[in-house]
Amino acid sequence: MATATSDLPLYRLDVDTCHRLADAGALDGMDVELLDGLLIDKDSAREDPIHRIDVDTYNRMVLTGALDGLHIELLDGLLVEMSPISPAHTVVVTRLMRHFAAAPQWWTQVQSPVEIRPRSEPEPDLLVAASEPPPGQHLRGALLAIEVAVSSHRADRGRKATLFSEADISTYWLVDLPGRAIEVRTRPGRHGYEQYEVYHEGSVVPSPLDGVADLDIAALLADV
User: How far apart are CA 111 and CA 85, in angstroms?
Assistant: First the structure.
């Protein structure tokens, strides 16, 4: 199926999962059918007929348990496959978590959702917020988002950067493992971050948060 979103790694549901979602009521109100693993709007004349899921519908789908164990996230209303996690990725994310969690006044979460309404719920590798989310809710904003990229640079530099900016997340770091550098984006605006800097191995990235030390890139990437 050729669509305007064919460059995204869309997740394709199997029939059993779709039935479980439907039986649990997660698809109520959606006039869709399953074609080639994608939820398609019936009788749609659009060039791209894939049904866009909003955040509330996605959260209902998650609560059914039908998506348990799937490495996916919601971007622009689409179920998108996340890149596999390599050992190097795991080490760097863990080191980042320890670095930022050392300041207890901030809420730090790893590989967990942030709601960017109406149709996105990405799961960046690290989020730092002013406080924990209300009971029963995901974060709906943050002070800092970090993605660690091994092969996901296109999405991380593209649509995700724009989404984080739209959500008014003050600072976005992209840790480029192959390039051994950290890209820092600040000053979020309607069309993306307005300021962009790159810090290479051997330099120190200034901390965007009070009480958190500057980050030594060489230490972060040691033996990785």
Answer: 11
Token pair of 12 as six digits: 């394709």
Q: Which residues, other chains included, contact 74 with Cβ-Cβ below 8 Å and sequence gap of 6+?
A: 53, 55, 58, 80, 119, 120, 121, 122
Angle at 131 between CA 130 and CA 136, to 5 degrees: 140
pLDDT in tens, 38-66: 999 998 788 889 999 999 999 999 999 99
Q: Are strands 107-110 and 78-81 parallel, antiparallel or unpaired?
A: unpaired
Domain containing 168: what range?
Answer: 87-220
Q: Please report whether residue 7 resides in a domain.
A: no
DSSP string, 92-158: HHHHHHHHHHTSTTSEEEES--B-BTTTBB---SEEEESSPPPTT--BS--SEEEEEESS-HHHHHT
Residue 2 lies in a domain: no
C-alpha to C-alpha distance for 106 and 109, rounded to whole angstroms: 10
**Tokens representing 224?**
């990785």
**What Å distances lie between residue 133 and 108, 124, 125, CA to CA?**
11, 16, 17
Per-residue pLDDT reduced to its tens digit, 168-193:
999 999 999 999 999 999 999 988 99
State the total domains in the chain: 2
Contact 77, 119 (CB under 8 A): yes
